[in-house]
Amino acid sequence: KEVIETTISIGDYSSAYVVGTDEENGYVYIAIEPDGMGGYILFSGDMWVSRIDISDWSYMQMFSSGYMTDISIEHQKMVVRDSVSSTLMISIIDLETWEKNSYSIDSQYGQAGNAYLSPDGTKVAYAVAVGDPSDEYGAVYLIDMEENTHVEYAPHARGVYKVSGWADNNTINYTLR
Predict the structure, then answer these.
(1) What's the burial of 23, exposed, middle or buried (CB within 10 Å: 0-12/13-18/19+)?
(2) Is 163:114 a contact under the CB 8 Å cutoff?
(3) How confident is the model over 125-135, as pLDDT tens digits?
(4) Are the CB atoms for 31 and 17 separated by under 8 Å?
(5) How far apart are CA 76 and CA 177, in angstroms?
(6) Distance of alpha carbon 27 from alpha carbon 50, whole angstroms
(7) What confidence score (pLDDT) does residue 13 get?
(8) pLDDT per residue over 96-121, tens digit each?
(9) CA atoms of 89 and 67, how far apart (whole Å)
(10) 3-class DSSP string for the chain
């Protein structure tokens, strides 16, 4: 197998790395983490994603607003936290058709993140928070794409939830601190 090395300038950002490779279609997905956002931000790890076509080294930014939180080449899906008209959303983008399904986040929450696809690619779990450092509340939500449901999974509680993935297709790994 031939190894090809290339350099892509990312500008003044904290880091860039490969988040997925799609050998069947000849794509490499790279994440670029923004730098210097500042403020009270609970859910780090958000990033912009670009897709590189290794046949000609052309690349494109995957979406114009919001930040990717998870990507599954196996299931051809990407999860994005974005906003539409100042409404926070969790969106799932199909990497083959570019179809985007968005789910509104309850307006009581000012922050959202840690969104992860289930191992079978049919569900998304994510954490939310009010965004008040002196009196923080949050919850964990579950989107089931097959059932077309969007429900609270772990109840609204004092503290900050962090979703870290899935134990299996029905059990979300999360903590409350």
Answers:
(1) exposed
(2) yes
(3) 999 999 999 99
(4) yes
(5) 33
(6) 10
(7) 60
(8) 998 999 999 999 999 999 999 999 99
(9) 11
(10) CCCCCCCCCCCCCCEEEEEEEECCCCEEEEEEECCCCCCCCCCCCCEEEEEEECCCCEEEECCCCCEEEEEECCCCEEEEEEEECCEEEEEEEECCCCCEEEEECCCCCCEEEEEEECCCCCEEEEEEECCCCCCCEEEEEEEECCCCEEEEEEEEEECCEEEEEEEECCEEEEEEC
Residue showing tokens 């307006």: 107
Give pLDDT, residue 17: 81
* Token pair belonging to 109: 């929450």
Q: Could you tell me whether strands 67-72 and 58-61 are parallel, antiparallel, or unpaired per DSSP bridges? A: unpaired
Distance CA 34, CA 23 (A): 27
**What confidence tens digit (pLDDT) does each residue in 16-49 have?**
788 889 999 999 998 887 665 567 778 766 678 8
CA distance 105 to 126: 10
The size of the chain, in residues, is 177
Closest to 16 in 3D by CA, of 63, 49, 38, 44: 49
Judged against a pLDDT cut of 70, whether residue 80 lies above it is answered with yes
Tokens standing for 108? Answer: 């009581």
Name the percent of the chain lying above pLDDT 90. 62
Q: Tokens at residue 37, please?
A: 């956002």
Strands 100-104 and 111-117: unpaired
